[in-house]
Amino acid sequence: MTPYSAEALSRAVAAVCPDIRTRIQTGMVSDERHLWWELSCCILSSQVPYSLAMAAADAIDEQGYLHCDEQSSERLAEQLFVLLSTPLEVEGKKRSYRFPRAKARYLASTWVAVTNAGGSLSALISGDVNDVRAWLVAHASGMGPKQASMFLRNCGVTYDLAILDRHVLNYMTAQGIYSGAQASISGLNQYGRHENKLREHAQELDCPVGLLDWAIWIVMRVANQKQEAILG
Q1: Which Gene3D superfamilies does this entry report, sorted A to Z (predicted)?
Q2: Which helix (H) or strand (E) segment is 90 a member of?
Q3: CATH 3.90.1300.10 correct for 32-155
Q4: Domains in the chain: boundaries
Q5: Is the pLDDT of residue 180 over 60?
Q6: What is the fold of 6-26+162-231?
Q7: Cβ-contact 160, 209 below 8 angstroms
Q8: Secondary structure class of 95 (helix, strand, coil)
Q9: Residue-wise burial string across 125-159, b where 16 or more C-beta atoms lie within 10 A, e elsewhere
Q10: Torsion of CA 219, 222, 224, 226, to 10 degrees
């Protein structure tokens, strides 16, 4: 945990929120190719550095594997597995992607689920955001509430859903609004309860919860880095 007080952390977060408001792009992403890139990143980034997940999503997008109208789940999974098993260029170095078989299956089954549900991600995300998130958690393999919320925020669908990662949960613990020992929350109902607590806190700071968690992530990372520098 950070040595900074709850008040100091909330002041820092409140100071960062206006800057984030000015940096976000307004409007929802409607391009199907871009939507699949964002969804791929969210699925591929679990337990993997985000830079590596982006490189993998770039490679998948370049091959167009998720843009075919007709293909079998088995063939798609095999194509994705071969690609994810090949070292990827990340910041000038070759990096191997972890879990290529599992993530290939996740992406393939998600592609099938989306295709069967309505044929496109753009059609899927046009509904109520809570219903869309619940659908993604139930049908998009490898996506929990955190990843589904991240996808909807990154696509500009909503800024009223929170990404409760370990940095945000640590901040909530410091503020006395989270007392769980879990570093992540997987159940949607439990996730929603803690999200509502953070939403109330966001209202106090006059910042949408989907931007507040972003500000918290920035502040907590900086606080942790300063603490490590002092201890190191």
Answers
A1: Hypothetical protein, domain 2
A2: strand 88-90
A3: no
A4: 6-26+162-231, 32-155
A5: yes
A6: Endonuclease Iii, domain 2 (1.10.1670)
A7: yes
A8: strand
A9: beeebeebbebbbebbbbbbbbbbbbbbbbbbbbb
A10: -140
The pLDDT of residue 118 is: 78
Q: How many residues does the chain have?
A: 232
CA distance 120 to 188: 24
Q: CA dist 69 to 31, 37, 72, 134, Å?
A: 16, 16, 10, 25
Q: Residue 228: its pLDDT value, please?
A: 62
* d(C-alpha 77, C-alpha 101), whole Å: 8
- Token pair listed for 133: 């998130």
pLDDT tens-digit profile of 13-69?
999 999 988 887 667 888 999 999 999 999 999 889 999 999 999 999 999 999 877
User: 93 in helix, strand or coil?
Assistant: strand
- What would the pLDDT profile of 72-106 be if each residue is shown by its tens digit? 889 999 999 999 999 999 988 999 999 999 999 99
Sequence-distant contacts of 10-13: CB under 8 A, at least 24 apart: 10/175, 10/205, 12/219, 12/223, 13/171, 13/205, 13/212, 13/215, 13/216, 13/219
The answer for residues whose C-beta is within 8 angstroms of residue 15's C-beta and 6 or more apart is none
Amino acid at 106: Y
163-191 in b/e form (b: 16+ CB < 10 A) is bbbebbbbbbbbbeebeeeeeebeebeeb
**The two structure tokens encoding residue 140:** 């998009």
Rounded CA-CA distance 1/5 in Å is 11
Topology match between the domains 6-26+162-231 and 32-155: no
| Residue 2: pLDDT over 70 | no
Closest by alpha carbon to 100, among 112, 111, 86? 86
